[in-house]
Amino acid sequence: MTAVLGALLAPLTGAATLAAPVNPKPSPSVTFNGEVHATTYWGDTIYVGGDFTAATVGGSTVSRSRVAAVNARTGALLPWNPKVDGMVRAIATDSDGVYLAGDFQSVNGSSRDSLAKVNHSGVLQSTFKHSISSGRPYDVSVGGGRLYLGGSFAVVDGHTRRGVAAFDLNTGALDLNWNPKLNDVVRAVLYTPGRVYLGGKFSSVNGLRGTAKMAALDPATGAVDLGFWSHISAMVHDITVSGSSVYAGIDGTGGRASAMDTAGNVRWTVTTDGDVQAIAVLDDVVYLGGHYDNVCRSAATGPKGVCIDGSIRRVKLAAVSAGSGNLLDWTANGNGSVGVIALRASEQLGQVVAGGAYTAVNGSTQRRFALFNLVSPQGLGISW
């Protein structure tokens, strides 16, 4: 019990000295007129999805319909410009293209039910067309020759799929043999070599114990990996993996971020007064995004997530040491209610990108998209 309490209280004992967070002041970049729900890196490009209809570039407005691409080195808007008729909630990418999932019914004027593939030139791919019903997608991940989809849906292409499905990227078809049984919503899906991690609201996968809220599956068969046992008790919003650690952004009474080993044993937990909706790791620093206003001094929370034993002000964004969970001095306070929805990090560029519903960071205007550690500032514009 002493070890557990120590882990819970560790985030507030002081800043770690080994981790070096990114610059908390966002670099000049494109911004958006609506919420950003998803970001992903592909080399020097950041693909962005959300509920926006325009980007702002150096004071000028440029049409972008729910998706856009940004030059990660300069912060400039790229010409990639598919037309999507509804919210994009998730994006994944590989060398063949960009995979979109969300609440849309058409892309580039062609029918696409909640899931689509667009190439890196912006052309819709005809071989990837599916039907998603009785719910919606929330997340996608690509790897090992498959696309993995998580959400609240119940049927895919006429086949029963309870919250999760896989597609063969060689043929574009639904994988008929990959069919885990979940009893509630999947909010996060992450492919890693040898495992697919799921996070969400579900209380079991395939009816097995130790799979509530978070589970690991075999990427090829969909069988539960019994080497991972969930110790999470509230809905998981986001998952990332770095080295031998698995990190989860969690809700609950207030919110949580937890670091686990690959067996699911919790190494540390940070408590906030609102959900941790996004999580990313860069250079031994874990970045937390959400709709919280404070990091709690203990795990004790009251009504509406209030920190019972006091708190340290961190609004929508915070950074902690990956090894210990110690709260760092890094302060990039956002605003609004919903806050930060998406976080991604690029080890190659030493950069973090945050998307969400906020309109300012540290009191300066920054609408819904922020780049921390711009690599090659060259004046904002459109990169043609």
Description:
This protein has one helix spanning 2-9; strands at residues 31-32, 36-42, 45-50, 54-57, 60-63, 67-71, 88-94, 97-102, 106-107, 110-111, 115-118, 132-133, 137-143, 146-151, 155-156, 159-160, 164-168, 186-192, 195-200, 214-217, 236-242, 245-250, 255-261, 266-272, 276-282, 285-290, 294-296, 311-313, 317-321, 340-346, 351-356, 360-361, 364-365, 369-372. The protein is 2% helix and 42% strand. The longest helix is centred in the N-terminal third of the chain and has 8 residues, at 2-9. Strand 9 (106-107) and strand 10 form a beta hairpin. It contains 1 helix and 34 strands. The N and C termini lie far apart (58 Å). The strands form 12 sheets. A 4-stranded antiparallel beta sheet has the order 21-22-23-24. A 3-stranded antiparallel beta sheet has the order 1-4-5, with no helix packed on it. With 384 residues, it is an all-beta fold. It has a single domain, classed as Methylamine Dehydrogenase, Chain H (7 Propeller), CATH 2.130.10.
